[in-house]
Amino acid sequence: MQFPFNIHIGKTEISTHLVTELLAFFIGYRYYSYLRKKNKDSISDLQRLFIIAGAAGGALIGSRLLALTEDPRLFMGAANKVFFIFGNKTVVGGMLGGLIGVELVKKLIKVKTSSGDMMTYPIILALIIGRIGCFAEGLKETTYGKATSLFTGIDFGDGIKRHPLQLYEIFVLICIWIMIRAGEKKFSYEDGTKFKLFMAFYLLQRFCFEFIKPNPFLIAGFSSIQLACFAGMLYYWKVFVKPFELIKKRNYA
After folding, report:
1. How many domains does the chain have?
2. pLDDT tens across 158-187, in order?
3. Domain co-membership, 75 together with 186
4. How far apart are the first and last CA of the chain?
5. What pTM does this model have?
């Protein structure tokens, strides 16, 4: 397989990464719309619109801000700093920024119920689609891992086998989806539990995988993404320390 792996239509070459990003947003939103029609939503259409806007705005800001801290030296040396800011983003920053944006909007519009459960599976699906595009980019997208001699290593085009972190993440996302779905069938979750489980375990896997990523800039031995993940895991500490408080009752049916 040759990297970057792009789509060719005649003489036209289209970025697979761009296509998968667009598909991730489109399919993720369509899946969310389907789930919202299928399940009763206690949040009104207008409130949902404000919440989605808060999530989008928070994700836009958070993804760019955290990306700047991955290696501040690159930002300081960039000729066009505005272009650099908008040209770099990170999923963890987007998710945490989106979370902050949603919580702020919910306080403004006085929504106290959880708004994340219905978005959980669509977000997981969108991330899986997006990571396919990251993988297709090869070395152009800095989501690959360190060099490895393991059988999972992939040569992205420079003769060195590296950890395909994009594929690792896809595998973990599928496992998280299965875990949440299995628990949903076996237990009656408290409101918001699905989203909390997803966020907690997603941040945990990103924290762990960062150790096998060639991060050029570290703070006390950790990357900025790891520190952000750790902060997010502290926010969801009950998932790890008191998981049974997230369960209403066992379903024996």
Report:
1. 2
2. 999 999 999 999 999 999 999 999 998 888
3. no
4. 49
5. 0.91
